[in-house]
């Protein structure tokens, strides 16, 4: 705590007292800036709770891929839902590609992909779900990227995703999904069966929301 007692040295004089008063004013102003809830520089609150740590990855025409084709996960890409690096868990990775310019967002798991699809504008400012040209998930059996809309998902198994919570492993066909469920538990779901209520129950991010 600052001590604002005035100096008692004799002979301080009028100019000395004025100088001391100036220093005291500056110190008081500085201390007020350090009080809780009083930022030193006024800052405009960010709109809503948009995550700003995961910019989209631009399409590279030199890749030779079609604009909406699935692509390899860049090592630097971050999931816009949870902030994790999907390249570190490729067996769970998912992605969406925007139709207008081929920009891609990458996800650490199908669960994060579905959370994103529920409210695209929340995680990608200025975007909406209608602008997405393609969505892909990783087939848990082969490791290949497959269309998210045609995949079969297993909910409620003992398989833990990158966030160490229950997840939605994806499969190219019902036979592969059923074989997995027979070993690891869980029920088979199609894309359209995964709704907001289920996602809210499965969301492992806690009270913080990007």
Detail the topology: elements first, then pairings.
Layout: H1 13-33, E1 94-98, E2 104-107, H2 110-118, H3 120-123, E3 132-138, E4 145-147, E5 152-155, E6 170-171, H4 174-184, E7 187-190, H5 196-202
Antiparallel strand pairs: 1-2, 1-3, 3-4, 5-6, 5-7
Helix pairs in contact: 2-5
Organism: Roseateles oligotrophus
Pfam family, one: NosL
Protein name: Nitrous oxide reductase accessory protein NosL
Structural notes for this entry:
- This protein is α+β, with helices and mostly antiparallel strands and 210 residues long.
- The chain folds into 2 domains: 10-43; 61-202, no CATH class.
- Helix content is 25%, strand content 14%.
- It has helices spanning 13-33, 110-118, 120-123, 174-184, 196-202; strands spanning 94-98, 104-107, 132-138, 145-147, 152-155, 170-171, 187-190.
- Strand 1 and strand 2 form a beta hairpin.
- Helix 2 (110-118) packs across helix 5.
- InterPro entries: N2O_reductase_NosL.
- It comes from Roseateles oligotrophus.
């Amino acid at each position: 705590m600052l001590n604002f007692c005035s100096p008692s040295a004799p002979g301080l004089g009028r100019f000395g007292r004025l100088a001391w008063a100036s220093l005291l004013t500056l110190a008081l102003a500085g201390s007020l800036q350090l009080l809780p809830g009083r930022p030193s520089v006024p800052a405009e609150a960010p709109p809503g709770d948009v995550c700003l740590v995961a910019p989209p990855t631009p399409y590279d025409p030199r890749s030779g891929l079609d604009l909406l084709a699935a692509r390899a996960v860049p090592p630097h890409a971050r999931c816009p839902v949870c902030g994790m690096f999907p390249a570190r868990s490729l067996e769970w990775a998912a992605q969406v590609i925007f139709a207008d310019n081929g920009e891609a967002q990458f996800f650490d798991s199908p669960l994060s992909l579905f959370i994103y699809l529920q409210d695209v504008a929340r995680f990608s400012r200025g975007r909406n779900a209608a602008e997405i040209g393609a969505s892909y998930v990783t087939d848990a059996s082969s490791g290949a990227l497959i269309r998210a809309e045609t995949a079969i998902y297993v909910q409620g198994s003992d398989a833990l995703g990158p966030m160490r919570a229950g997840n939605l492993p994806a499969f190219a066909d019902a036979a592969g999904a059923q074989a997995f469920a027979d070993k690891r538990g869980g029920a088979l779901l199609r894309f359209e069966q995964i709704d907001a209520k289920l996602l809210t129950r499965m969301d492992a991010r806690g009270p913080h929301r990007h």
